[in-house]
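for the record, two folds in this file. i put them one after another cuz i was lazy. first one right below, seq on top, structure tokens after. the second one comes after a little note so u can tell where it starts
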Amino acid sequence: MDFEIASREILVVLGPSGCGKTTLLRILAGLEEPDAGEVLLEGRPALRIPPQDRRFGVVFQDQALFEKMSAERNIAFGLEVRGVPAGRVRERVERMLKLVRLVPHRRKLPAQLSGGQRQRVALARALAYEPSVMLFDEPFTALDARTRVELRREVRRILRDADVAALFITHDQEEALELADRILVLNGGQVEQVGTPYDVYNRPGNEFVATFLGAANVLLGRWRRDRTWVLGTALDPPEERPALVDGQPIKVVFRPEDVEIGFRRDLLAARHPLSEAVVESVSYVGRTERLTVRLAARLVGASSPEDVVDIGGLPLVVTRTKWEAEEAPLEVGDAVVLGLRSYRLLPHFPLGTQSGAETV
């Protein structure tokens, strides 16, 4: 892999368990050595620099606070062992307590603090030595959902105020999207894609990125005569597409929120009418309604003989806003029609036993 972290940037490394996220962080921190390659810190080779001299602040999932020291003593400890003068220690501790909003809790022991407050102490301790880069290894995993949301917003503010770059390790997609200036998607030790949260979510470079970062539906089709053929229907091409040759198998990728669902095809506002379906499940998840629909159409032919395929029973996931759900309530068993507001095309390279029109 090859990537950079810019000054003041928050780069989030996102990937499944075992893909190499923590190993990458430990290499950057100097806790492990790479088999090959180089780590550059402001353009200078860093592998020969001891961990304590790299000026990296590290925050782990387990805060590792000193349980018999108060919050302010925990923050001060790292500065004291480095020989920082007492006046400077007091000044830095005061500034860090204000930065993480823990002044009223300064004399409390870790056992008297909430999980979020303990994590703030760990963050303040790491920032106190004025690191050039902060490294976070899934720091919010042990916290409850509400505290995680509140703390990651707070941490983003703190990093901005401290004027420091940061690398976050996480497998939480929502966390990555909210925290990051850029997201690096890692899979099996390989970088799948790097980009802004908007680009990685809306312009996934491959199927792994599309399906790992949020939910995605994937259909197999064929590119023919400058149009997308899928489920026996010819769709107008999307605004962006890869270089494709006529007759090439393709993957049609779309998010659940990209699907419009209705009762009549001629009333759909979506640009790309897709197929008929039957509602299989309906669940309300707060901000949205999530539906599973099964395609009800049975194709007997398409644009060419090799595209003949039975799509009966193929499930797709659709989400609607609560306003859409209230305006047109749906129940299990309802017959509906589907249209796509937008979609993305990826090249598909099928196995010899697969047809380009199979569905996944």
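(here's the note) second protein begins now
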Amino acid sequence: MTEKLLEIHQLCKTYNVSGGFFHPKKRSVRAVDHVEMAVYRGETLGLVGESGCGKSTLARLLTRLEEPTSGQIFFKGADIFSFSAEELTAYRRNVQMIFQDSYSSLNPRQSALGIIKEPLTIHRIGDQKTREKTALDIMAKVGLGAQHARRYAHEFSGGQRQRIGIARALVLQPELIIADEPVSSLDVSIQAQILNLLLDLKKDFGLTYLFVSHDLNVIRFMADRVAVMYLGKIVETAPNFKLYERPLHPYTRMLLAAIPVCDPRRKEKSVAVRGEAVAENDQGCAFRNRCPYRTAICSEQSPELQEVDDQHFCACHLAGSI
């Protein structure tokens, strides 16, 4: 492994939500639950899980768009939650985000050139002429020509808008890019173009990615290493080939079994799923209500994320024996 660019220790984020008209009493929902994770320089770490498992909340915590309930995040050894205003500005220059909804993340009152140029203005990089040249150069890198510079967001297709978002994230030359479901709203053919573009940019600029998605095929194509998230917890992490060839956690097996098989001659592997998605309380394994392999200990003790094989970590009492 290379050096750790980002380290996450015991990170938690809890929201107080109302139960609605019939249940007005507020309850606590832990969107991110004691997450332990690291992102290594030069890698693409894929973060995968069902919708609502806490992936986007984690991404927003990493960019400090949200503040945590508890826990720490270290960027190159420095705790980002202890940064001064000046240090936070420098951090946000080094860590940029590509958002899922390319339309709502773009300012409708600015042209494409203005959107891409704005981070340079905020961080006071160069003069007006230099900023415009830099923005045009980045536009060319992502496949947008000078003829697109004066157009507004509503004049672009979804794929073109996402290219603008990528260019905006890239213009500051960050070290880490957090991509939050960047292709989920695009057609499959456009998805392939954007994914290939991201891979090319990684090579050209020496980038590190945290790539968030619920699509395991996309993660398989993009990621060097994969982290699986369930109900706010990281339940398995492994190099790409290990996770897809020999998943250890029952939840990972369930996700992989749900991938559609295109070959009609090949029989799909099914994994029995039962019970509710949420456990009754915090005691025990959060996945136990849906797990076909659960035993008595699963209701009594929450499993820790432990190394079962070389670089293969799993939070399951039966890891390696199923």
